[in-house]
What we know:
There is one protein chain. By secondary structure, the protein is an alpha/beta fold. Helices cover 27% and strands 24% of the residues. The protein has six helices and eight strands; from the N terminus they run βββαβααβαβαβαβ. It has an eight-stranded mixed beta sheet with strand order 1-2-4-3-5-6-7-8. Strand 5, helix 4 and strand 6 form a beta-alpha-beta unit. It is globular. The two termini are 25 Å apart. The model has no long low-confidence stretch (mean pLDDT 89).
Amino acid sequence: SRFRFTGEPGWQLAGVYSRRLAWDTPHGVVVTLRSPDDVRWAHHDASAEFVGRLGERYGVARIDTRGCAESGWSPGLSWHVRRAAALLGRTVASMRVYDTLRAIEAVRQLDGVDPDQVILAARGEMTVVALCAALLDGRVKAVAMEDPPATLDQASQPDGRGPATELWGALRVTDLPEIAALLWPADLIFVGWRPESYRFAEETYGRLGAPGAVRHVKQLDAYG
């Protein structure tokens, strides 16, 4: 089923929710953040492949935050969007974080969803959004990441294309590995390669112990 929600006044966002009809009790849900390069309107894309067969045990909600899929804009407009956002004290990444928090709120109200069993899943630049949203939400069960950036301290392309991961002032106080460490006791799931910088998060989880855990899997459907 498709659903829409208001990210903020004047800005509506879309999502697609699917689950097995045989379920008669609330189940967990994987909230998948679609990437800017995902095909608009596609029923099966890289985000769907990322979740894989995990959708047989969980419901799946695919979310289009601004700049992604149905809510996307032409890559040629990225420089203008990012510059305009900066003039307003915002960034594309920070707006996507807010969109994701609103999406989680909406998903928890869907029929058949256990609100305490929400997994955030993201690839590439969207893992920055997933980590920050999970930290601010404080209730997610796990965060699944594929190809996460090693740090926020990376240069953007002069023409505005490419990953939009900047967050104003964040590096004054923290970076992505520290944000990941702060998610304990939520599970951290690394799908495939993990940047060396996240060793800090893994060691922190090791010291804190259960119930939080770090998982390394080749495919996300191996989790759970």
